[in-house]
Amino acid sequence: MIVRALADEELEHVDARLPLHRLEQSGGLYLVAWEAGEPVGHAHLALTDPPELQDVYVLPAHRRRGVATALTRAAEQEAASRSFDRLTLSVDVENDAAQALYRRCGYRERGGPVRHRGSTLLRGEPFAFDVLLVYLVKPLGSPPGA
Ligand SMILES: CC(C)(COP(=O)(O)OP(=O)(O)OC[C@H]1O[C@@H](n2cnc3c(N)ncnc32)[C@H](O)[C@@H]1OP(=O)(O)O)[C@@H](O)C(=O)NCCC(=O)NCCS
Predict the structure, then answer these.
(1) Considering the domain boundaries, does residue 40 fall inside one?
(2) Is residue 142 scored above 90 in pLDDT?
(3) Which of 61, 76, 97, 121 lies most in the core, judged by the most C-beta atoms within 10 Å?
(4) What is the extent of the structural domain holding 112?
């Protein structure tokens, strides 16, 4: 498996196969995992201060094979290469799979749960949400699972 930043010339191919919900969000980049020449998962890194890992997604047929872990690591390396000392994220309290993933990758709780209700536009489409989010953080440079 290879993880690399989404290149302009790959956009059409990847967009047809993966739900790049944050594509129109400025100030960040997508990392894409490739297997056998096909995109199988993605993660969005928002270059805020601190940076935030968002929209981690793996195609169902490719789950439980370390793809999201590799995407998370790649996001950490990308953030560290830009001199950030931590990476943050939020996750739905009911998303047990994602919580297990991030805790295993070394993320720890920094706040929440906080209820978020409202609506937004995702790729031009209205999206209503009502979620309880926990906030996680990982100091960059710490070993996985520390
Ligand atoms: C959550 C998600 C990104 C995990 O992707 P993945 O590539 O399967 O994750 P990994 O293979 O790297 O898993 C690493 C570890 O996380 C934990 N984990 C991952 N999926 C899990 C699940 N369904 N149930 C329990 N633990 C899980 C396990 O500890 C796993 O290690 P193991 O397989 O050796 O037991 C994927 O299920 C997905 O795309 N879900 C839908 C989108 C989503 O919820 N994204 C997260 C938004 S915050």
Answers:
(1) yes
(2) no
(3) 76
(4) 2-139
Q: Which of 22, 101, 116, 138 for a ligand 1 pocket mutation test, highest count of atoms within 8 Å of Cβ?
A: 101
Cβ neighbors of 103 (< 8 A, separation 6 or more) are 136
The Cα–Cα gap between 84 and 91 comes to 21
Structure tokens at 38: 């096909």
Residue nearest (by alpha carbon) to ligand 1 atom 27 = 97
The CATH number linked to 26 is 3.40.630.30
Tell me what pLDDT residue 146 has: 53
Any atom of ligand 1 within 6 Å of the Cβ of 18: no
Which pLDDT belongs to residue 141? 78
Number of domains the chain contains: 1
What phi, psi does 129 have (nearest 5°)?
-140, 150
Q: Does 4 sit in the ligand 1 pocket, CB within 6 Å?
A: no
Residue 123 lies in a domain: yes
Please report the pLDDT score of residue 143 as a whole number. 54
Does the reported pTM lie above 0.90?
yes
Atom of ligand 1 nearest to the CA of 65: 11
pLDDT at residue 133, as a whole number: 97
**Does the C-beta of 99 come closer than 6 Å to ligand 1?**
no
Tokens of residue 30, six digits = 């997508």
